[in-house]
Amino acid sequence: MKILILEDDGERVRSFYDMFCDDSLVVVNSSLSAIFLIRELKFDVIFLDHDLGGQTYVDSEEQNTGYQVSKIIDDSINKLTPIIIHSWNQIGVKRMKEVLKDHKGQVVSVPFGNFDRNIFCLNKI
Q1: 7, 30, 54, 98: most buried, per Cβ within 10 A?
Q2: Cα dihedral 125, 59, 94, 24 in deg (nearest 10)
Q3: Residue 14 to residues 17, 28, 40, 56, 98: CA-CA distances in angstroms?
């Protein structure tokens, strides 16, 4: 699978590589990079963190958040791509889910550390 991962924590990134070692991972750590790729490349799955730039519990209106990325997905070639929100910021997750409520692909929210590769089986992604 071709998987886009929006994550800024190095340890989490290493965990993603361990979990999905047989897949093609594209890892970015900023909303601008993710937005560019989502508009240009088709992915099988997209993992989104909300808080970026080494910050925690960031307001969704800040530019460098997963929320900003969520807002453009349905106007991209990834409008059917399953989305997994893996943030611990519950307010940010709620806002991301609100903006993705009409997303044609599946949207799942599972905080990082509470899933493994089996997330694809359990959620039928």
Answers
A1: 7
A2: 0
A3: 5, 13, 25, 19, 29
Tokens of 121: 């089986």
Domains in the chain: ranges and CATH: 2-122 (3.40.50.2300)
Distances (CA, A) of 45 to 2, 53, 59: 7, 22, 25
Report the pLDDT value the prediction gives residue 47, as an integer from 0 to 100.
97
Q: What is the C-alpha to C-alpha distance for residues 50 and 42, in angstroms, rounded to an integer?
A: 21
Mean of pLDDT over the chain? 91
35-65: pLDDT as tens digits: 999 999 999 999 999 999 888 888 788 889 9
